[in-house]
Every structure is written in C-alpha cells, then in structure tokens.
Amino acid sequence: MKRRDFLKSTSALMGGTILYATGIPAMAQAEPVSGGTLIWGHSETTQNLDMHQTGTASTGRVLQNVHDSIVTVDKDLNVIPNLAESFEISADGLVYTFKLRPGVVFHNGQKMTSADVKFSFERCKDPATGAVNFEVFNSVASIDTPDDLTVVITLGQVNAPFLSRLAENGAGVIMPTGTGDVQGTTPIGCGPFKFVRREFGNEVELARFDDYWGGPAYLDKIIAREITEPTVRLTGLRTGELHMINDIPADRIAEIEGDDKFQVVSWFPLNWDFVNFNHDFEPFKNPKVREAFDYMIDKEALLEGALWGQGAVTASPSYPTSASYNHDLKQRPQDFEKAKALLAEAGYGEGELSVVFKATTNYPYHIEAAQIMLEWFRMAGVDATIEQLTWSDWLSQCWVDKDFQITMMNFFTLWEPDFLYYSLWNTEGAFNYRKISNAKVDELTAKARVTVDPQARADIYKQVQTVVHDETLDVILWFRNGTIGAQTGVMGLDTIVHPNGSNLNFHKVWLQS
Amino acid sequence: MLRRLIGSVIVMWAVATLVFFMLRFVPGDPVAAMLADAGGPDEIAAMKRQLGLDRSLFVQYAIWFQNMLHGDLGASIYGSRAAVTDVLAEAIPRTLSLSLLAFVIALIIAVPAGILSATRRNSATDTTVSLLAFLGLSMPDFWLAILLIIVFAANLQWLPAIGYAPLADGLWPWLSHLILPAVAIGTAFSAIIARMIRSSLLEVLKSDYMRTARAKGLTPWMIMFGHALPNAMIPVITVIGIAFALLISGAVVVENVFAIKGLGRVLIEGILNRDYPVVQGAVLVVSAIFVFSNLIVDLLYGVIDPRIRLN
C-alpha cells in the first residue's frame, strides 16, 4: 500500500495521534535515563513570551513546556483535569467549580492557590492586558475563592465552549500572582521546564523544574535553536549538531526516513489549509463564481503536487475525530466544463475574468499550490496571475487591509468548534479577513454558543460546514501532517506531540547516553 | 582629520535618515507582522497607538533622532520590545569576528598568490593563480558555503555547520564555528586582492628604482619586501577599503546559510518583519563600519607612504 493510500484510509480515524514512526529502536522496552541537553532545531522564531498576549504557534510550541493550564484534553479531545484535580458544572451551565491540585509549585517557589487562578483569569479578561483570548471570559460574572484550593466561576449567561477553551494555555494558563509584568520577557509558570533565557531570533533555553507536580522531566536542559531555513535545519541534523528538528520539508522526508541514523515521527493533523475568496471583490460576490473556482481545483492532485501527499484531503475543517466533523460533505471534483458553465451563467465568458492570487513565501508549499492552481484557472478560461508576498506583506495586505482577490492560508487544527467557526466565518469573527457575511452562518454560530447539549451543538456546527461548502464561502483543501526528524538516540518521541498537533511537550523525552 | 571625522558623521546621518524614510515608504506593516494571526484590526490600531506609529512621519523621525543621540535606538517591534542596542550588541561581535577572520584568510591566500604571479609573470604559476582567482570571484559565496558544509561538516564532520560560539567558550569552539563561513566569504575577497597585488606589483617592478635596487646588490627578498611591496600596497589598500563592503554583504548571505545570528541576519529578518527600529539600528552600524574602515584606510596611507599625510 502506498503511504498516500494509507494516509487516506486512516485519515478519518486518527486525530493528533502518531501516524507512523520509522527507525525508532525498541522504544517501549528501554528504561528512561535522566540527564543531558537536547538541542532542538526549531522551525520558527518565538515572539512575545507572555502566554496571554501571544497567539503564534511558534511561541506556544515552546511555552507548552513552561506552563500548565487548569484543565487539558486527552488524545480524544475530552476535557480532563490538570491543575484542577476535578471540576463540576451546575445543571444550568452557569456555575463552574474547580478543585485545585494541592502541592503545585511555580518556578519562583510560590505555591499555587485559588488566588493565582483568580489572578490569571482576571488578567486575561482585563482589556489592558491585551490578551489574545480575552473573549473567553466575556460571560464571566464573578470568580470566587472560598478556600485556597477551590475556585467558583459564575457566568452571566451560558457559554458552551467555556470549559474547552480553558484547556488551552492561551486562556487556561495559571501564572503566579503578581508576575504579569515579567511574563513577556521571563515567563514563570508551573510546567515541567523553567525558562532560563532567550536570545531573540536565535535560541531559547529551558531547564528542568525538579519540583514539577507531574514528576521531574528527564532532560536537564532544552536548547531550542531557531533555524527558519529548512535546509539549514536538515544540515544540522545530518552533522549531529541538532538532536531533533520539527517541520521537515515534505520533499525531503523520504531522504531522512531512508537513513538509519535518523528517525522520523509523523502525525496527523498539524494544521489545515484553505483557498480564500475576497467576498468584497465583485466577481466573488456571486456564489456561482466561487463554486466555479472550486470545480477547477483537483484537491488530491494538489496535495500530491504541493505537499508530496503529506496530509489528507477534507471538506471539513473540524478536528478529524471531533463530534462536529461533518462526514457527509464531499469535496467537489475537478470539472472544467462545469466550471466554465458556471462562469458563463455568472456572465463571464472565456477570458473575461482575471484574478490575482496572493500567496506567501512564508509557506513555500503555498507558492507551489498557487502555481498549480493558476494553470487550472487558465485552463478554465480565467486569466490568472500570482503575487508572492513575504509574511509581513501577506499579513498587512490580506489579513489587515483585506486587499486581495484570492489567496490561501492555513490554521491550527482547533478542536474547539466555537473558536474555529465563529472566528473565521461569523461576520463579526476576529479572523474573518475575507469579508464574509452570511446570515445563516451568523445565526448558527451565535446559537451554538448558548447550546449546552454537546450533540445539539455538534449538529449546529455540521450545519455551518454545510453552508460553508454549499455556498463555497472558502474552499477547504486538506489537513497537513506534522513531522519531526531526530537522531535515533532521542527517546520518548511518541509522547511529544500535544493533542492540538502543534505544541511539543518534552516532559517524557529523554536522551540515550 | 577633524574635517574627515565630521564628514563621516554627516554621511552616517544621511544614511540613517534615508533609511528611516525609505523603510516607511515600503509597503508592509510591522504591527501586522508582530500580531500575526493573534490580533484583529482593533488590536492592531491599539498597538500602533502604543508604539507611536500613528503619529506623523516627521514627529516619529524627530523622536527617533533625539533618542539616537542619547544612545537609545528604540525597541524591536517584532521581538517583544527587546532593546535594539542589546540586539546589536549580540550581533556585532559575530559579524566582526566573521569578517575579520575572512579578512585574515583572504590575506593569507592573496598576498603569496599575488606576489607569485607577479614575479613569475606569464608562467604556469601565474596562469594557475589567475584562473583560480577568476573561479573564486565568480563563485557565489552561498554556493561555496553549501559545498563547504557538504564536504567538511556533513561528510568529514571536521567542523560544525551551524551557529556561533562566543570566544568565552574557548578559542577552538569560537574558531571552529567561524572557519567555514569565513572561507566562504574570504575566497572572493582574496581573489580581488590577489589580482590587485599582481597588477600593482608589476607596475612597481618596472620602475627605475627597482633597477637601482638590483644594481646596488640587494637580494630579491629584500627588493620584494623592502621596496616593491610597500609601494605596491597603496592601490591595494584602497581596494581593500572599498571591498570591505564585500565582506559585510557576504556576511549577510553566509550568516543565513550557517545560522549565525549576526548583523546580516538581524538586518534580513528586520526587513522581512518591517521591524523599523532594528533595521535602522543595523544600518547605522553597517554604515559606521563602512565609514570608519575607509577612514582607517586613509590613515594607513600616511603610515605606509609618509608623502601622503592627511592635513
């Protein structure tokens, strides 16, 4: 069976799980040893280190080891206890009671109490903090601390996604009281590793925290060297200067897999991609034109061409194993005749429509995908050109100024559907850079927020996906695999990937002497 | 001398001012780059107010210029408000170490090669040196860098391929991290100097006082190092001063290949992220290096040839 076929057949079953691992020697049998410094070639640079203020995947990936959240998720994305030993939700869905784990110590020696939880959540909620996830606490009426280990949060109105949003470090992280000012430069949490130093744009150093409530980690130190150039990362792995690297370029995976000095860990999914239309651009106001473009794209061929098959196509951006994933949706097949007919219906004959595709060089596979799609657009009689933008140019033109006709982007695989569907497709959504305004989607995403019954909520999100698909608000392409390449002496890599697919957790990783 | 110094400062001011305004006319938005997928338009507007980027260009310039005179180059927009002076203080020793080592390597190759090909003009040695010089000149430094990595780091595993170790870690760790990038940059530089030494020496060797020197019975060694070379060095030093630009621009590219966070990488990342204060600071330092290396060249003239004295 070809790997691609294997991926396809398993794609519906897996979520955030290790897809395959090659070259891992007898991992289960070996007895972990403590010690050593792991040098990690990190694919991106970290930015603002304040967990409340940062929203970038790169920073979250590192801070995952410094911070812990009040609750977390298991690999099936069920919310489970973490810093809270247990939690209870009242029948009306308005009162959340958390019992904290005793004996949790922060890196500064402070013991965690309910006051720290109150401090952290109020800091996140305060507009002056500039927290990315402040809206999670919008419906919070009061936070009470009846004793040192009990936190009672009362909501003014039902907010169904509340608990699962607290399972992310962004909103659910607990920081020691009074450390707000230093978090941006020297983050303090209660995770398995302490922050030691960061040389901006070069490296971050973490050291084991011996008093970690979950038991000390094995590694003495982690040095995350920020090497954004993929070939340089691969060189570092080859010369043995790096123990592991994340994000191997898709076209080089086979080469690393074929070398018995290295192991490759791959998981599904890392993130998902979609093609975006600017709904303010005259031709794209007509759903027929958007549908026509969908018919021009062969998603399987594009996945193979741009990503070397390292992923699986999907018509839904919901987390593959989540209850809200709509399995009834099928991607439209490539059909140029249908595309031409739809364009003609919309009043655009052969060669009468021209579009500019803006793609960012920050994701080289976006450039390759755009180039392939351009050929297809031309074959359907559309005059198309590509404009390559650096990351900051893409952000400023497409994200902020919404000045584009057609583009593509990827997003974290968010397991919390409110975060995903409200942010991206609601007219008011913070991530609605396509100027989408769809009454049905607005109504459904608002309704889901106050629907407590999980099944009913999941059904609403399935309807949202149907609207997104039927009216081609965007073209959902695929989930992309995540990859790590490492020396064979790096052990415990089967535990490193957080269920969100992006964060890396080094607590159980160790080095063979 | 004072006039030269004042001139140098004016040049640096002009460069800094030019860069300040050019950066702001380039499309792109530093705040958008920083907030990435984390912020909506409201956050971006608020952040711009906080950073003073909503004020008029000239007010921004006046504030920046005033702070610069006080030694404050501002804070990185993209990199959690790290002071630009700190970013530069980390980067400058790396680029200077790299450039100086590249310079030394270039001289070690160029001086003997230039002398050899000048004294054995039109011989097989001369042709070989000229050929190698052309090869060195036409080889892009990043390509040579990759070749060096493949051979010496990946296959032979003699030298590290990425990163930088400060001198405080020991002489060998420092040197070993710099050898490959320094050779990659120094090669083209040595080719230029070797060609220059050759032509300049040929010129000198034809002159009358060379004949006089030989006539009074000096050894060829003394003729070369006592008379010919010092006189041939004047145009060579001029070229070295100008070509120092080559070392710095070479460092920009080669630092990326070897993942060394020097001035070059700071500059490139700053430009890509529209991190205005960082780019302004880095350009200021690079222009200072240019201006002062040329000043040093001018002073060296006087040392080598007392007839040329600055007034």
UniProtKB/TrEMBL annotation, chain A:
GO terms, molecular function: peptide transmembrane transporter activity
PROSITE patterns xref list: TAT (PS51318)
GO cellular component, one term: outer membrane-bounded periplasmic space
GO BP, sorted A to Z: peptide transport
Record-linked InterPro entries: Peptide/Ni-bd, SBP_5, SBP_5_dom, TAT_signal
Record key words, sorted: Signal, Transport
Keyword Manganese: no
Principal location: periplasm
Solute-binding protein family domain ranges (all copies): 79-429
Pfam families named among the record's database cross-references: SBP_bac_5
Family statement: Belongs to the bacterial solute-binding protein 5 family.
Protein name in the entry: ABC transporter substrate-binding protein
Native source species: Antarcticimicrobium luteum
